[in-house]
Every structure is written in C-alpha cells, then in structure tokens.
Amino acid sequence: MATNRTFTMIKPDAVKNGHTGAILNDIIKGGFKIVAMKYTSLTKETAGAFYAVHKERGFYGELVDFMSSGPIVAAILEKDNAVEDFRKLIGATDPKKAEVGTIRNKYAESIEANAVHGSDSDENAEIEGNFYFSALERF
Ligand code: RTP
Ligand code: MG
After folding, report:
1. Quick check: is 19 catalytic?
2. Which of 18, 44, 125, 129 can bridge 119 by disulfide, Cβ–Cβ 3.0-4.6 Å?
3. What is the pTM of this model?
4. Which one of the ligands is nearest to 14 CA?
5. What InterPro entries does its record include (predicted)?
6. From start to end of 4-100, where are the E strands?
7. Ligand closest to CA 93
C-alpha cells in the first residue's frame, strides 16, 4: 500500500536554525505532496522507540538525546518511487558526503544533526507514518 509514500522528520537542528520553510519548499519543489504533517516533539522515550532499530549502535544514546532536544516537523509524503527519490533529495547521512544541492548539503550541521530523516524502505515508511499519524490525520 505504501509504495508511493515515505515518512520524514525535519530534525531539531533544522527547526532551531530556521530552515523549516526552506526544507518544506525543497520537498514540494522536488515533486512530493504532503499528505499529513505536524509540528511536535519527541520525548526520550518516544525517540528511543522510534530509533529502536539503532539500539545496538554506538550513537544511539546521543541520537535519542538529540532527537528529543527540541521541536520537529513530522510528515508523510507522496510521490512515485517516494522512498528512493526522497533519499536522493536529502543526500548522504554525513552532510560532508551529501551531494551539492541536497537538503543535507544545504542545511545539515553534522552527521548526527543532519536536518532531516527519510524512511529507508516502504515497510519502514508505513511503520514510521503510523507512529505519528492516525488514519484520520492523513489525506
Ligand atoms: P535517517 O534514518 O535519519 O533518515 O538517516 P540515515 O538513514 O541516513 O542514517 P541511519 O544510519 O539510519 O542513522 C540514523 C541517524 O542517526 C544519526 N547518526 N549519527 N554519530 C554518528 O556516527 C551517526 N550516524 C548516524 C543521524 O542523525 C542519522 O540520520
Ligand atoms: Mg535511517
């Protein structure tokens, strides 16, 4: 069902640095339609649950602290080939390696504070969208 949808968060660094509008503009210009969106925040508990797949990785504790450090914007996006195309639009995890013109190249601070999240598979896009949004909150 979710093959044409992906899930994103504008992370605390980008919200704090005033990049929310520019990032949403890049997303829309990139051909994505916003089908659900909210301005919200994560607690340590909810950030921990969202990133549970990374529990065993060395950066997990720092990631949870960072993701619960301030407001975020969560959204479900629609486009053909959404997951792959969105990861192209945001660029590599490490902004130093992200292609020029990508969202992380333009707005990220570091490998951790890297401006945006993008789902890595159709299955995770569905799970992550469901984490934030009820059926009533999607168009
Ligand atoms: P995301 O899930 O946020 O879209 O990022 P990604 O797929 O490009 O990267 P992933 O490997 O899933 O890592 C999730 C997030 O953890 C932080 N990270 N920190 N300190 C580090 O070495 C490190 N590596 C990853 C980043 O915020 C990354 O986006
Ligand atoms: Mg990931």
Report:
1. no
2. 125
3. 0.96
4. 1
5. NDK-like_dom, NDK-like_dom_sf, Nucleoside_diP_kinase
6. 5-10, 33-40, 72-78
7. 1
| Per-residue confidence in pLDDT tens, the chain, 139 aa | 446 999 999 999 999 999 999 999 999 999 999 999 999 999 999 999 999 999 999 999 999 999 999 999 999 999 999 999 999 999 999 999 999 999 999 999 999 999 999 999 999 999 999 999 999 998 8
Nearest CA to ligand 1 atom 10: 93
Q: Quick one: tokens of 76? A: 């479900």
Catalytic residue among 67, 73, 117, 129: 117
Across the strands, what pairs with 81? none
Which spans in the chain are helix H? 12-16, 20-29, 44-50, 60-67, 82-90, 103-107, 122-132
Residues with a CB atom less than 6 Å from ligand 1: 54, 59, 63, 93, 111-112, 114, 117-118, 120
* Cβ(33)–Cβ(75) below 8 Å: no
